[in-house]
Amino acid sequence: MKTHHSLTIAFTLAGASLVGMAPTQVSAQDIQEAVPLGIQAMNEKKWEQAQGIFAKIIESYGGDRGKRLFGGRFGIIYYNKGYAEQKMATNFKGLGGEENLAKAAEYSSLAKESFTKSYAIPSDDKSKNIYHKKSLLCKGQAHQALEEYEEAITSYKKFIAERGPRDKFNRGMYQINMAICHFRLDEPQIKEGIVFFDTSLKNKDRWKTPNTAIVSAFQALTRAMIATKNERALIDFLNQNRSAITLRPYQMVQFGPFFQKLATDALTADMQQAAYSLFALIPGTEVALSDLGGIKEKLALYPGLAIKEGSDFISKERISKWYSDLRDKDRSGDPPEVLALSALAFTHESNGNVRGAYRAYEQLELYFRDSTRREVNLYNLVRTSAVADELSVTVGYAQKFLAKYPESKYREPAANMMLSLLFANSKYEESELIAGEMIADLPKPSPLHDICLHVLGGSKFYLGKFAEARPHLEEHLKLYEKSKYSISANYFEASNLAQLQLWDQAGVKLKKFLKTYPDSTKNVFLAYALNDLANVHSYKGEDEIALENIARIESEFHESNVANTAYNLKGSILQNMGQLDEAKKYFLKVCDSVEDSDSDVNQGESLYRLVNLLGAEKIDKKPNANMKEALPYYDRFWKNHQNSPFKGLLAVAGMPALIEAGRDDEALSNLQLAITDMAERKKFSNLEKTIATYTVYYLQAQEKKKISPSNAISNLKLHYYTFPGIDKKNIRALALLRIAVIGVYEKSLKIASKEGNEALVSRIQAGINATFKDLKTAYPVEKLSDSVLIRIGDYLRTKSSAPRQALPYYQERLKHTQPNGRISAEFGIADIYGRAGSNAEMTKAIGMMQDVIKQKDTTKKNRAKAHSSMVQIYAKQGNWNKVVEEGVLYLEEHTKERTAIQQLLAQAYDEQKNYLKCIAINSNLAGNNRSNWDVSVPAMNRATELMWAHGTAAKDGRSKQQLAYEVAARYIKSSRAAFDEHKDEMSEIVRTTWKRIDARVMKWEDSGKIQTFAEMEKNNK
């Protein structure tokens, strides 16, 4: 009895305050000390110490011994041991990590065993096990911790079935745990679990169910519904229980990660509506901070460490920590919303919903720009928007990214995506602008410089800026021979040369391209290259070869986009070859292959070419009796192709047919509209020719109205100065109209000059001068077109008293990169510098001419002109050695300005005192230009003069003086009659020089140093 009494006392000393360590062995004599120590350790939450004490007791009284000795109360020892083990498992689980979780599972297993053994020792006549039934409840919790949910449910149910009225337990937690276990079964029993969950929620306040438990149950429910794809049920549950699940903002802070994880899982399961509902449970950072701040201020008024609110204790320390942590996250730029949106974006993209990811990243950029992950988020926004084909968004954010993070490791892919997307979507203006801004700062060679240079050159190519594109295209091929863009880069360069009309170079490049990349499955430009090469051969007059290339397109690529372009070209070639019926067939093939559409450029071209073919005034130099056949095609074009680039050409080509059909006013009106349209669209390439045609027909219309030529010109000038539809700011177009007026004046000037009408000549010249003055004063040089710049420059250089006024016009032309006509400006400047420039300017002009000669694409004609200019400038400088050098080169290769160059060469030899060569070249000049007094007379004068003084004797013994006399005397004798006839028409210097030669001949005859022709004739008798 004493033992029982001692044990009973020990078991009831749960609140006793005893000091000491757990014994290494527990015997019957000291159990009354060990049990209070274990209870004390539990009270102090020293679970490991408590578990060790109870384990030693059990070890000492293992098997049935403890039960035999102490009866039912020995079950309490097992219960307390299990309780301590359960607490230890909870602590290890809270620490996280693989090792700690393993320990948690280990102690949960020990707890399960302890509770099982406690339940195996019921109350008996010796003593009571007050935890006998509650062991079932705790055993269920151990099963639950070990994820043995069926066993847990069984234990919980058994507890409810067997418990007595005095077995108190937390009803709210029981309902929560039963709900969780049903939700987490391998085959979730959602309906049964919801019954328990609903019960706990309805009695939440009465049972004081902890918020953490409610969140755990909701998490289990959500996972179960995600696993079973039961989105509708989850949404319904949320809608019905939102108030119970949604806590105050400060409370929700701790559960934010849970809800984010649940929402992400829902997205992964493609339950988007449920996911958004879950994300909506998370309070905004500002709201949560405000609530936490209010609670913090409230707690500061209380002296204790915590206050109780419902089932929860609000700890000052915990609230302060939550507030501090959340505030720090917010200040760092990474509040919970950032994590939520990042997770949302990642999940969307993982599930293939790139557009959803793009929207999430955009929210991050719009509202969380202070995030420490902004660089990555912004790059991902660029990337996902590019995949989502949001062109303008990609470009905008890519530019922002590159400006904000110039050193980012994502710089290259971001720029690459932006440029690639722009270029692939034919946004060439933007591509050109952005690539042009970027390229200067890029290292070369480098991958980013590779694409940037490719896009810049390619954009300029597609925009028709062929001269500007050329250096970029050439540089790309030089730097990046093995670029992934090599096929397109090689095509752009070759085709660009063709667009620049550098036919020889283009032909070589295009042939090489076709040979290097012959596989059409890899080379998408193959058909286009064939068409370009056909164009090259056509322009070079090699029509048969051109047709061979088109034949390949016709047979191999008849379904390609370029096929109709090639057919139009073939029709044009056949037309030039005189095969008009075949040409018509190909033009019809194009225009009838598609529905009438203003956007189909090829169809518009084919209709124009049909009008040009059928509406020609003459065919084979004979009047065309069937011009009316062109009218249906003209009308079809005018109805359906108002935006075609061939509108002006069509209006010109259709003039004869419309006039013959009595549609004169319509024809002229349409041509006028075409000019207005071309001017408005800034299509200046064909505008000058179109204006010229309009001018002719306008004057014809004036003539039909019986208006005098002078009045017609006045009307034309007034009409062109106020041309309908052309904006006053469109300087290029208005300048071209004034140039057209000057052209009419110049034609009239020639007629008046031939007729000898001095008064009319004077009046017309005044009109020309006035119009040029208008051009010069009204329009700044930088606003004028290339052709107008040259026309004004040439006029000022050749027709004005101040040729240097032409320099700004030529210099402005040289600023423009278009090659056609550029050389005219260079020659103009060289001429001005050569005639009236300083020595430095003349040297500069020589350099310009040398550059012209060096250029690969300089024609033979222009090369000759450059050599000629250099000879003249060197002569002006008095650099006679260079005159000889360049003059000899010129005479070896060219003939057009042979006489002028020979004159300068003769002068150079004279200055060098190289008299024999001077004699030879002057003799040649005199002999080859006998009818040209201005050349032959001075040449003969100097040649014979030098022969007398510095010549050489003949092999037959005749002296140099004799030879000089004979040449001069024969010349005078043979030219006397012509001289007498034309001397009044000659210049004074030529007349004087001829007479000087005549006088010299007579002087030589009187000198006695030579044998005169009279003496020779007398001796021969």
Topology:
Layout: H1 2-11, H2 31-43, H3 47-60, H4 65-70, H5 74-95, H6 98-119, H7 134-145, H8 149-162, H9 171-183, H10 190-202, H11 204-207, H12 211-227, H13 231-245, H14 249-268, H15 272-279, H16 285-299, E1 306-309, E2 312-315, H17 316-332, H18 336-350, H19 354-367, H20 374-387, H21 391-404, H22 411-424, H23 428-439, H24 447-462, H25 466-479, H26 486-499, H27 503-516, H28 526-539, H29 543-556, H30 563-576, H31 580-591, H32 601-614, E3 618-619, E4 622-623, H33 631-640, H34 647-653, H35 655-660, H36 664-680, H37 687-704, H38 709-721, H39 731-755, H40 758-778, H41 786-799, H42 807-815, H43 822-836, H44 839-854, H45 860-877, H46 880-893, H47 898-911, H48 915-928, H49 933-950, H50 960-982, H51 988-1007, H52 1013-1020
Antiparallel strand pairs: 1-2, 3-4
Query: What's the shape?
Result: elongated
For the biggest β-sheet, the strand order reads: 1-2
Annotated CATH homologous superfamily of the domain at 1-169: Tetratricopeptide repeat domain
Question: Distance between the terminal alpha carbons, to the nearest Å?
Answer: 191 Å
> Any idea what the radius of gyration is?
52 Å
If classified by CATH, what would the architecture of the domain at 1-169 be? Alpha Horseshoe
State the share of residues found in helices, binned by percent: over 70%
| Weakly predicted, low-confidence segments | 1-29
* CATH secondary-structure class of the domain at 1-169: Mainly Alpha
**With helices defined by DSSP (H or I, 4 residues minimum), what is the helix count?**
52
